[in-house]
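Notebook p. 47: complex prediction with adenosine-5'-triphosphate.
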Amino acid sequence: MKYDMLLLRFGEFMLKGKNRSRFEKTIINQVRSLLKPYPGASLRKEFGRLYVDLGGESHTELIAVLKRVFGVMSISPVKVTASELDQIVETAVAFMDERECEFKEGTTFKVNVRRVWKEFPSSSHEMNHLVGSPILRKFQQLSVDVRQPDIELRVEIRDQGTYIFNEVIPAVGGFPLGTNGKAMLLLSGGIDSPVAAWSSMRRGLEVECVHFYSYPFTSQRAKEKVIDLARALADHAGTIKLHLVPFTEIQTAFTQLGQDNLIITLMRRSMLRIATKLAEREHALALITGDSLGQVASQTLPSMNVIGRATELPLLRPLVMMDKQEIITLSKQIGTYDISILPYDDCCTLFVPKSPSTNPNLRIVDKIEATMSQLPEWVEQAVEQTETITLHAGETFIVNNQQDEDHEMKEEWF
Ligand code: ATP
Ligand code: MG
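Predicted complex, C-alpha cells below:
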C-alpha cells in the first residue's frame, strides 16, 4: 500500500499538565534526529499528535525507526485524501481493496468516521453508512460488526484533508528522552550494559556512556566494538556521548597487589569513582550499570554492597532482577545483541582470577586502597585523559531485518 504519512500518538500523560509542551518538544527533537537519514520525510505537530509526511520514504522503514521514539505510544500509517465525499468514499474503497488478500469468508469490519471539521456537510453517523455501504457492496465476503470487528477502518475528516487508516502499531512508550534527568552509564562490551542503557532511556533518562579500556592489554578492536554499541544506542536516542577512559595504569597497579580474588572488586570501585567525577562534570545525577543479581561474582549482594559504596551518587541497576534470557531477548530487540556477542577482550575478563570473591570484606578493601597512595591521583589523571566522542543515529551497519515483516511489527513495539 502507498501511504502518505505516519500518525504518531503520545502517551496519555502527555495530554495534560504543565509538562506537556516540554515533553512534546523533547519527542519532536528525537524524531528529528532519527529522521536525519531520511531527507524526504517531514514533521508536523498537532494537539497531542505528530504527523510525519513520508515524502516518498518507505513507510515500513520509517515505522521501524520511529517505533523507538521514547514517549510515543503507537503509530498508524495513513492515506490522505481531500475532504470531499466522493474522494473519501473512493479512497476508503481503494484502501480496503489493497487489504482484500487478507479477507476470508466471515471477516468483519466497521467504519469509524470522526468529523473533526464541523463544516463538513454529513455527520459522522451518516458518513459511517456512506463509506460502509459501497465497501459492503464491493466485498461480498465482508460483514459488519460494530463491537469487535477484525478490521476497523478509521476516517478522520479534517479541514486540511481526510485521514484514512486502520493499523495501530504499538510503539515503545515510556517517558520522552531526558525528561527525567541525565545519568552516566558504565558501558562494557557485554550483553547487559547496552540493555541497561536502553531501559534507562525508556524511563526518560538521558544517558551518557563511559567505557574503561586498558590498551595494550585490551585491543583496539575491543574499543571499536564499544563504539559500535554506543552507535546502536544512538539509533534509539538520536545521539549518544561516549567517554573513553584509559584504565591501564590503575589496572596494572591492582594486578601487582597479590590480591587476585579482590581485583574485580577493586577495579569496579575505581571505575565508579572515575564515573562519578565524569558524572559531576557532565551534570549527571546518577550512575547506571548492567549488573544483574547473582549473575557473576561481582554481582552478588555482598559484592554490590562493597562496590556500590565507592560512589555517593545513586547507583541504578535496571537489570538487577531480570533473568539472563529476558536480557538477551531485549538486546536482540533493540539491536545490540549481534554486536555484544562478537568476541572481545574486556579489561575485566582479561584478568579474571580463578576465584573472584563473592563476599568481599569492606574493611580489607578500604585498607588495600589506603595503602595505594597514588590511587586518587590516577583517578584524577584518568578523568583528565578521557576522550569523548559523539555518535549519531543511522550510522549503524547491522541491518534491522524486521523491516519487511509487517505482522511482527503489529505485535511488538521496539
Ligand atoms: P555486561 O554484559 O554489561 O558486560 P556482565 O554481566 O558481563 O555485564 P560484568 O562484566 O561483571 O558483567 O560487568 C558488570 C557491569 O560493570 C557492566 O554491566 C558495566 O555496567 C560495568 N562494566 C564492566 N566492565 C566495564 C568496562 N570495561 N567499562 C565500563 N563499564 C564496565
Ligand atoms: Mg562484561
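Notes: Confidence is low (pLDDT under 50) at residues 398-414. The two ends are 23 Å apart (CA to CA).
Next step: compare against the earlier run before touching the bench.
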